[in-house]
Design goal:
The two termini are about 40 Å apart. About 0% of the residues have low confidence. The chain is globular, with a radius of gyration of 22 Å. The chain is about 80% helix and about 0% strand. It is mostly helical.
Length: about 450
């Protein structure tokens, strides 16, 4: 009897964190590299977004612009759905990414033409609000299309590690290159990174289409007829129509809306705190020669680094075990209970330091546990839902949560004369929202159990 072939180095390392078959490794690593580059690029741009909008217009305008982004997403999702019904998935992803690359070149040209900081800040804030959600939504639609539910639960934690590690590295790259390149040349750097992502998507697509059926990881790839389907455009129909036709998808949509409502309320407070700290540093002469926009950019880059460092640790050491022990349904409840605890302490008059750490833990759990869980919820849905409905949920309903926060800020400050800068007021309101969020998690868990049982028959 021949000796069993010893596992390779990559297999020995990866199986520490999850169950993975040797022939699954190349695609998993390519997907992880792809999403690493996407998130690194986004987090190179994200401090620029904060710097331009906060230095040019302030935290209030930043909050209200979310409404404009949500309205734009109604049209963006419709256009995306129409294109998805006409071209195969690999061309869909390539065309959308090329469009965003061209936009970054245009922003650099606007800078060279001398357009004011405030104007560019508004345009760039709206643009990146569309970019970051669309580019990530289509990636995870692609990843969901490659794997079954069983394989996705095993392999998504590894892919999510790539995303979290990219989000961790992006702020540091921003800090290293901000002075030698400047904020606007960093945009061109990200354009080049996105070009590499297009190439990786094409390689992964060709690899999975040509993959033989008699592999060890047979259960993790699609059968021959499904592979042929993947070469075709999606069926006609809009993303919003799919969402409103399915109770399961509608519950997920409202979950995403509430999650971002809570998160954006916290982001508003954080923006106020960071702007205040930057202004105080300038007044005290401790800004280290940076102007206000560069100082805000550095403060946010450091905050994002800490958030994503914790998210990487969660993703690497906890996520696969959470899916194994509690499943996708159990993982749904982790973030709302962490957020509930954080805002509970803030509501009782916590210091600004506690606010920052509460927001750090909330965001870290969101970027690791909750992100992987939200993506895994789509493993049991149709291809159309994975691309179109997921795009609608991850874009419009995400921004609808931001709009809800903007309306909250406007209503309580305009009609009720509530001091929104009092963080206890925001915390109490968020606690009420989180209780509704937990009820939605229960409803989603019930629907997920029902659909999983139907799919297993």
């Amino acid at each position: 009897m021949s000796a069993e072939k010893s596992p390779g180095f990559a297999h020995r390392i990866l199986r520490i964190f999850t169950v993975i078959h040797p022939d699954e490794i190349p695609t998993v690593l390519l997907l992880s590299l792809n999403v690493f580059l996407l998130l690194a690029g986004y987090y190179i741009l994200k401090p620029i977004r904060e710097a331009l909008i906060l230095a040019g217009k302030g935290a209030e305008i930043k909050t209200y612009l979310s409404g404009a982004i949500a309205i734009l997403f109604i049209f963006v999702v419709k256009i995306f759905s129409n294109i998805a019904s006409r071209v195969p998935r690999q061309k869909l992803i390539a065309w959308v990414t090329l469009f965003f690359i061209s936009n970054l070149v245009i922003f650099y040209m606007l800078y060279l033409s001398g357009i004011s900081l405030g104007t560019i800040g508004i345009i760039f804030y709206v643009w990146i609000g569309i970019f970051n959600l669309m580019i990530v939504a289509q990636f995870w639609g692609f990843a969901n299309d490659l794997y079954t539910e069983e394989a996705g639960k095993r392999l998504f934690p590894i892919i999510m590690f790539g995303a979290n590690f990219g989000a961790l590295c992006g702020p540091k790259i921003h800090l290293w290159l901000m002075r030698p390149l400047g904020l606007y040349r960093l945009m061109l750097l990200v354009g080049g990174i996105l070009g590499i992502c297009i190439l990786l998507t094409l390689i992964i697509h060709k690899r999975e289409i040509k993959k033989p059926e008699n592999t060890v990881a047979k259960k993790s790839v699609q059968n021959e007829s499904e592979k042929k389907e993947q070469e075709k455009p999606l069926k006609k129909g809009g993303g919003f129509r799919l969402v409103f036709k399915s109770r399961y998808l509608l519950y997920i949509a409202f979950l995403v809306l509430l999650l971002n409502f809570v998160n954006t309320n916290g982001e508003y407070v954080l923006g106020k705190v960071i702007t205040h700290d930057a202004t105080r540093a300038l007044e005290m002469g401790t800004a280290g020669g940076l102007d206000k926009s560069e100082l805000i950019s550095r403060l946010y880059a450091n905050f994002f680094f800490i958030v994503n460092l914790i998210a990487v640790i969660f993703q690497l050491f906890l996520m696969s075990r959470i899916f194994k022990w509690f499943g996708v349904r159990g993982a749904l409840f982790i973030l709302p209970f962490i957020a509930l605890g954080g805002y509970f302490f803030v509501a009782f008059g916590a210091t600004l330091i506690i606010v920052r750490w509460a927001k750090t833990m909330e965001n870290s759990t969101d970027y690791s546990v909750m992100n992987a869980t939200r993506h895994a919820l789509f493993l049991i849905t149709s291809r159309e839902a994975k691309y179109k409905a997921k795009a609608a949920i991850d874009t419009f309903f995400t921004r609808a949560g931001d709009v809800s926060s903007a309306l909250f800020v406007f209503i309580v400050t305009t009609f009720f004369a509530v001091n929104i800068e009092n963080i206890e007021n925001v915390a109490i309101f968020n606690i009420a929202l989180i209780l509704i969020w937990i009820i939605l998690c229960i409803l989603i868990a019930r629907q997920h159990k029902k659909l999983s049982a139907q799919q297993a028959q």
